[in-house]
Specification:
heterodimer, A: alpha/beta, 4-stranded parallel β-sheet, 5 helices, B: alpha+beta, 3-stranded antiparallel β-sheet, 6 helices, 3 strands, about 55% helix
Amino acid sequence: MSFAVGGETECLGERYALSGTDVMLGVEVEALGSDYQANGYMTIGQADDLGRLLELGPGQILLDLGAGCGWPGLYLARTTGCAVVSLDPVAEGVGAAARRSMQDGQDERSWPIRADARGLPIRARSIDAVVHNDVLC
Amino acid sequence: MLRACHRVLKPGGGLAFHVIQPTLGLSAAGRRRASLSGPPAVALATSYESLLRSAGFAAISATDITDEYASTVRRWIDAHERCEAEIREAAGTAMFDERAAGRQDTLLAIEDGLLSRFQYTAERR
């Protein structure tokens, strides 16, 4: 199992800078249907499926591991009304997630955290649902 | 990491994730090629079902989403090709070429049956 650490996080930082450009956001919309600076393989339809499977809704807390810039956690928070903890080890990703949650007016129920998923700085039995996307390989 | 997820979830809480993995039953050579064509740590030897059970999860479900994975890779490739000039300007030629080659390699590995993508869901007991 892996999670981005060390040099890989530096590489991801550069990738996040590029993914925020207009051209790459357009490419992302075409490939995934999202515009959260994502560069993986979870489509907007698959994110909606996860929201339904996990029965997300207002009053619940979702933990998104390896959230990057907020995909799909921030999106699921926006569409289902749940709160979200977006956790990622890369500062650029966490910063982008924080800016996006403010831009979308959902910062009161969004907590971007810079941390490694192996040592979750989260209280036991406090989360209603967890998602992650290609973090475990 | 699955144990960490189990610790923070409320009893009855749900876990859902997508993973890319080598297709089960590959030869050693096939697994090597899958490892080179997929994400950096794609070579997992143990099944996710057993890892989830060991971590204390129940109601485990696995859905093969490899076909959607292939379609998504194709859309990335097509979109990159359509915007090639702009991406080369923004990212640089070396990065564009590296990404393009990587996506093509991944697509070939999927089409050759070497890489799979699964959705797993499970519930914390």
